[in-house]
Amino acid sequence: MKKPLILILLPLFILSIAVSCSADDNDQTQELINDNSTDNGGDNTDNNDNSDDNNNSDDGNASSTVFERLVGNTFRQIENPGDCATCEDEINYYIFSNNGIQVTGTTPDGVCEQNDFEQLGTCEDCLVITQDTEEQLTICGDSNGDGSNDICQTITFLSETEIQFNFYPQSNPESNIIWTAQLFEDEAPCTDWDPLDNGENSVFSRLQGNTYRQIESVNDCGTCEDEINYYIFSEEGLRITGTTLDGTCEQNDFQPIGDCDGCAEIEINSEDLFTVCIGTFPFRVCQTITFVSESEIQFDFPAFNQTWTAQLYTESPPCTDSSFPVYDGVFDGSVYDADNGTFEFPSTAQSWAGFANTAEIYPLSFPNGGKVTFTGATAGTDIDVYFRFEANPYPDTEPSYNSANVTVTGTEAAEYTVEIPSQGSNTFNSALFYLVTQDQVLTASDFVITSYD
After folding, report:
1. Closest by alpha carbon to 289, among 206, 409, 188, 173?
2. Who is most buried in 219, 222, 241, 301, counting CB within 10 A?
3. What is the CATH number of the domain that holds 434?
4. pLDDT tens for residues 357-384?
5. Whether residue 390 sits in one domain with residue 285
6. Strand ranges, E, within 194-340
7. Distance of CA 451 to the CA centre of its chain
């Protein structure tokens, strides 16, 4: 299996929204919570305030709402994978103040891995209190960006020293996650920890410029295969190339990392951990990389409960000059059958109908020429095909290049190669595949674009 940096859109319902709101929003939060905020010590702008003013006595609990009882207290959750579908071996601390909830977290051995603050109020990104009674506190957030507050959680007291969280989508409250946390009277760790250290000793800084190799076998994990993967780190992101055990290229993907559209977002970059995430709350999937030694790194992918290691590789990694297009983008009447891997150019289609690549392989360049290889077969009638490379998708297509036609013949699958002459300094951000022969079904797969060194 091709090794992804991140598998996207798995419903990991996790409590991690990092936001920032204005002082005016904080005042509105106070009014929303209750009209007796002065009983809790007035405005509290210190997220870690555990002052005696907010400690609740047994006499006051009878008439206090859940939020009033929470403010000024910290609750600890010692989590393990058996607790819930998305749980891990970690320790979480929930620190309640008048302005919101600060959530810090460590690994079981005390390494900081989280420090988020969730603002309560009426600002654009704030969580909103929709219910606060003596029995239950309900807080909702907006996962769609449409103001619908579609993800909610309730907090209730099980006893004076234990609370329960119930986290659920409004559309389906039954698909919930429940956990408990216990009163923690010591100072919570990691409240001043900066998850984005970005110094020269941070994990990401140490990874950049290095390549790590993983020799994978089917016994390593549930989705593993017999293959070799290469992880090539740069300041811009992570390139993953891969081969079969006999050296045949089968992967060359690049995942940008940073602050851009399509980038994996850096959530933690400290001297101990490097965590990147893709997706938005609540469909957010993360992966963590740590150094096992100076020459070995470990990947932790909790979405699939998978862990693997890769070792420093000092030679030139293979397959960096190969790309693996997926020509499943039909347009103007072309027909693609994904189940059978077949292509057809009907006579009823527009004359320019074809198939666009949808894989992340750009930009492409051929300063020394290159080639396209693929495996093809017909139903009995020969079919002519060609490939086109454009500067950008229509209409800004120039400069462009059309390859020579190649004839696919016979019903037995065979490999075909189309040569690409030097294209100088031109770069291409659109790759297209065309059939010349109409009303015939072509079976084609294993497309590889190679740029010569």
Report:
1. 206
2. 241
3. 2.60.120.430
4. 998 898 999 999 999 999 999 999 999 9
5. no
6. 211-216, 227-233, 237-244, 249-256, 265-269, 274-280, 283-293, 296-301, 306-313, 322-323, 329-331, 335-337
7. 29
**90-97 and 237-244: which strand pairing?**
unpaired
What string of DSSP letters covers 101-125?
EEEEEE-TT--EEEEEEEEBSSSTT
Whether residue 317 is predicted with pLDDT greater than 90 in this model: the reply is: yes
Q: Are residues 88 and 108 in the same domain?
A: yes
pTM of the model: 0.58
Domain containing 104 equals 23-183
CA distances from 413 to 248, 335, 342 (A): 18, 20, 12
Listed range (19-23, 212-216, 377-381) with the worst mean pLDDT: 19-23
**Phi and psi, residue 351, nearest 5°:** -65, -25
In a domain, 15, yes or no: no
Residue 47's closest CA among 104, 132, 107, 128? Answer: 104
Who wins on pLDDT, 321 or 450? 450
CA–CA separation, 386 vs 436, rounded Å? 8
List the structure tokens of 372.
Answer: 């396209």
